[in-house]
Specification:
Blueprint: E1 3-10, H1 14-21, H2 26-30, E2 38-41, E3 50-54, E4 63-72, E5 76-83, E6 88-99, E7 102-112, H3 119-126, H4 128-150, E8 159-163, H5 168-179, E9 183-188, E10 203-206, E11 213-215, E12 223-226, H6 239-261, E13 269-275, E14 286-287, H7 297-307, E15 318-324, E16 326-328, H8 333-343, E17 356-357, E18 359-361, H9 362-374, E19 380-384, E20 390-391, H10 392-403, H11 413-429, E21 433-434, H12 437-441, H13 451-458
Parallel strand pairs: 8-9, 8-12, 9-10, 12-13, 13-15, 14-21, 15-19, 16-18
Antiparallel strand pairs: 1-7, 2-3, 3-4, 4-5, 5-6, 6-7, 10-11, 17-20
Helix pairs in contact: 1-4, 4-9, 5-9, 6-7, 10-13
C-alpha cells in the first residue's frame, strides 16, 4: 500500500503551528484555492470529531468524511476517511519541536484506490502529483499565516464583528482571524444563506434598512470590519443594478454607522471597505492615498461610500478605509473569469493592453486588513494593492507563463463595450497605477510582491 510523506519546517515554535491548526478556520485556510472544495462540517481536533466536505471529481461532487483519532494535543492527530473516493485514506499529522523557535510538521498518508489492483503502478500519475501540489500550497499557506499572526502575537486578541462574511474576502478573512485566536462574529440579514460551517452562536442579525438588531447585541466589539455590498462586476450596469450597488454600500454603511454611534459600548475601530475605483481612469499617473478623486460612476460611488461613515466622525471610533485593488484568487473575481480563456491560450491584450492593473493576492488582502486592525494608530485611507502594478498585457503574459499557455490573442475593446457596456469600459478597458504608500509606511510587509509569485501560489504552480 503506497505511503505519501511530506515534511515541512517552520521558523516558529511547535505551539504556534499547532495553535494555527487547532483554530476553527484552519480547514478553510488549508484548502487549495484551485480545488473547489466545499466544506459541510468542521470537526474540532478531538477524537471522534468529523470533518465533512465535497470534492470535485470531474462533473461529480462526492462527499468526503474524515474522522479525527489519536489526537495528542500539541503533538499529533490523525484523519481516517470513513466515506470518500479512496479505498483507504489514513492521514497522520505529526508536530515536532526542533528548537524553541523552530518546528517540523510531518504528514504521512497511507492510501489505496477503490480498485486496489491499480493503486501501486498508477500512483505516480493518479495521486502523487496532486498530493505534492496540494502540500506545497498547504506548507506555504501555513507558513505565511503563522508568520502574519506571530507579528502581533504579543497583543491581546480582539472581539470582531464582520459584515460581508460570506463573500470572497470575508470568508477567508473570518477563517484567518479565527486561526489567529480572535473572537469572530458575523452581522447578517435574516435572508443571508450562511455556510453550514458557520457557528450559529456567533451570528448577529439585523435589518439593514431600519438598523434594528433582530438577534444579538452590537455592544462590546473591539473592531467592526464592514465588507458588505453587491458585486460591482457581477452584472451589467443598468440603472437598476447601479442603484442596488450604491444602496448596498452607501445606505447600508450609513445606517450601520448610525447604529454604532449610539451604542453604550461602541467599537474602537471601524474598517470600511472601499476600492481603488476612487481614483478613476488615470492612465499611468502614479496614484497614492493622497491623490485626488477621479470622475465617473466608480469614483462617485467610492466617495459616497467613504463619506457615509460620517455618523461616526463625532465619536472616538477610528475609521479606516480599505481601498482594495483587484484581488487575485481562482475562487472568484476577475481571475476566475480569466482562467478559462487563459487555459485555452485565448487570453492576450484586451483593448490597447496598456491599461494598468493594480492587484493584490488574497492572502495579502487578509494580512493587510489584520495588520491595520492590530495597529492602534491606523486611520484614514489605505491602498490595498501590491507594490508592483502591471499593464493588462503584462498581466495576461504572466498568467500564460504560469499556466504554460500562449497569451497573445488580442480582444478588441469594442467587443468588451458591446458585451459588458459601461461596466466593461470602466472595469476592463480603464485602469489605475496605484501604490500602497501608507500601508508600506505603516510597516506592512507583502507576501507576494510580484504577480508571478501570486499566481504560482494560488494555482499550485510553485517551482
Amino acid at each position: 500500500m503506497p505511503t505519501f510523506v511530506h515534511e515541512a519546517t517552520f521558523p516558529h515554535a511547535r505551539e504556534e503551528v499547532w495553535n494555527w491548526y487547532d483554530g476553527y478556520g484552519a480547514f478553510l485556510r488549508i484548502m487549495p484555492e484551485w480545488e473547489g472544495l466545499k466544506p459541510v462540517q468542521i470537526g474540532a481536533l478531538k477524537d471522534g470529531e468529523e470533518t465533512k466536505f465535497r470534492i470535485k471529481l470531474g462533473p461529480l461532487r462526492p462527499m468526503w468524511i474524515a474522522r479525527h483519532h489519536h489526537v495528542r494535543k500539541g503533538e499529533s492527530f490523525s484523519d481516517l476517511m470513513v466515506k470518500g473516493p479512496f479505498g483507504k485514506w489514513d492521514h497522520v499529522h505529526g508536530f515536532h519541536a526542533l528548537s524553541k523557535s523552530e518546528s517540523k510538521v510531518i504528514d504521512s498518508i497511507e492510501w489505496k484506490l477503490p480498485f486496489h489492483l491499480f493503486t501501486g503502478w498508477t500512483s505516480f500519475i493518479t495521486v502523487a502529483p496532486r498530493l505534492k501540489k496540494m502540500f506545497r500550497f498547504r506548507t506555504d499557506r501555513t507558513a505565511n499565516d503563522v508568520a502574519a499572526i506571530s507579528k502581533t502575537y504579543h497583543l491581546p486578541r480582539k472581539k470582531i464583528l464582520v459584515t460581508g462574511s460570506t463573500g470572497l474576502i470575508g470568508t477567508q478573512l473570518c477563517a484567518f482571524l479565527e486561526c489567529a485566536g480572535h473572537e469572530v462574529y458575523r452581522l447578517v440579514r435574516p435572508s443571508t444563506k450562511l455556510p453550514k460551517t458557520v457557528r450559529k452562536t456567533h451570528v448577529i442579525q439585523w435589518n439593514e434598512t431600519t438598523g434594528e438588531i433582530l438577534e444579538g447585541d452590537l455592544n462590546g466589539f473591539d473592531t467592526v470590519i464592514h465588507l458588505a455590498g453587491a458585486g460591482i462586476g457581477d452584472k451589467r450596469w443598468s440603472k437598476k443594478r447601479k442603484a442596488i450597488v450604491r444602496t448596498s454600500r452607501v445606505d447600508t454603511t450609513k445606517k450601520l454607522c448610525e447604529v454604532l454611534s449610539k451604542l453604550s459600548l461602541p467599537p474602537q475601530q471601524f474598517l470600511c471597505g472601499s476600492a481603488i475605483g476612487y481614483y478613476g481612469n488615470r492612465g499611468t499617473e502614479r496614484l497614492t492615498e493622497s491623490s485626488t478623486i477621479g470622475d465617473g460612476f466608480l469614483p462617485d460611488l467610492c466617495n459616497e461610500w467613504e463619506q457615509s461613515t460620517r455618523p461616526l466622525h463625532d465619536t472616538n471610533v477610528k475609521i479606516v478605509f480599505l481601498r482594495t485593488g483587484l484581488v487575485m484568487t481562482p475562487m472568484g473575481g476577475i481571475m476566475k473569469r480569466l482562467l478559462l480563456p487563459a487555459k485555452f491560450g485565448a487570453l492576450g491584450p484586451v483593448g490597447s493592453g496598456k491599461q494598468m492593473q493594480s492587484w493584490i493576492s488574497l492572502d495579502d488582502e487578509i494580512y493587510a486588513i489584520h495588520h491595520l486592525m492590530m495597529d492602534s494608530t491606523s486611520e484614514g485611507p489605505y491602498n490595498l494593492t501590491a507594490p508592483l502594478p502591471v499593464s493588462q498585457k503584462e498581466f495576461a503574459k504572466v498568467l500564460g507563463r504560469v499556466l504554460r499557455r500562449p497569451a497573445f490573442a488580442p480582444l478588441p475593446g469594442f467587443v468588451i463595450k458591446m458585451v459588458f457596456g459601461e461596466m466593461g469600459k470602466q472595469l476592463v478597458l480603464e485602469g489605475q497605477e496605484v501604490y500602497p504608500e501608507r500601508l508600506v509606511e505603516s510597516g506592512f510587509e507583502f507576501t507576494h510582491t510580484t504577480l508571478e509569485s501570486c499566481f504560482r501560489h494560488c494555482l499550485g504552480m510553485q517551482k
